[in-house]
Specification:
Blueprint (H helix, E strand, L loop, with lengths): L10 E3 L2 E2 L4 H13 L14 H11 L5 H21 L8 E6 L7 H10 L4 E7 L2 H14 L4 E2 L2 E2 L2 H10 L4 E5 L9 H12 L7 E7 L4 H7 L6 H16 L9 E8 L4 E8 L3 E5 L4 E5 L4 E8 L3 H10 L2 E8 L5 E8 L3
Parallel strand pairs: 3-4, 3-7, 4-5, 4-6, 7-8
Antiparallel strand pairs: 1-2, 8-15, 9-10, 10-13, 11-12, 14-15
Helix pairs in contact: 2-9, 3-4
Length: about 350
Amino acid sequence: MPHHPTVQAAELAPSSTIVADPNLLLQAHVRQGLARPFKALSSMYFYDDEGSRLFQQIMALPEYYPTRTEFALLSRHRAAIARALRPQNPAEPFFLLELGAGDGLKTKILLRELLEEGADFTYVPVDISAAALEGLGASLQAELPTLRVEPVVADYADALGLMAARPGRKAVLFLGSNIGNFSPEERQQFLQRLARPLTADDRLLIGFDLQKDPRLIRAAYDDSQGVTAAFNYNLLHRLNREMEADFDLDYWQHYTDYNPLTGAVRSFLASTRAQTVHFAALDWSVDFRAWEMIHTENSYKFTRPGIEAAAQEAGLQVAEFFTDEQDYFADVLLRRQDA
């Protein structure tokens, strides 16, 4: 599952503020994505407030193993991971920046460990959902009242720009299996962008869902309760609401497949009949053939050699490789190759 969209307002330092119109970004994306021969919309637009709520439900599903598996992994290795993220000098301050913070359930494991160790750090959660960050802020205030928090409502690209402009040591978290939502080309570009502003002292911790029983993987993205389908349909609800579109959800189906050769889970919305969808806000319409697909999401699964090769190509190297007991999931610590 993913995490990447809109920008509302963000401040990491008093002088660094993002300005962008999320409505214009969405309109441009829809025009481009639905005008292609093979129609596609980015999974980043799943995550309005309702989408974020549905994703919280997905993470609690019995079929959706990644969240609970990574939670167990972080619990198991929390002391070693905390030591790897913080400076060697315990008195040195640093920023712990998390891309796609969500509800912070897993991150709190590391936050508690760092606070117990007396680390001097500021937590910078980044998410495209203001509601998610508000909820996270409230829970952190209640559970970890001494924690310094500077939330940022932004997409990944803007957050990385702010990260580069902020002086001081940084440890960047990209947990979950969000890295799998990029195409291979996008993934390399993203890793290169992550690597570019890093100093020799900075660290990255990225979550990778590992290849395993294909039946287990497919079930995680097509659950028996239909929550994942509702998560996909919410994208059409969002376009109806924000762009005055007229998608009739009675004539759309959610479909998922998994290719164990490429490691790619792909999600689609299928038009079950020939139809024309109008976007009143754009004075524009799109024709769909019967059973034409809108590709909405990739979720790639990885091998250790593949992770090491991708890191090397991006100018990074694997410093440590943390896995759960079943080798279902890995949180991988990365640093610059010349560090």
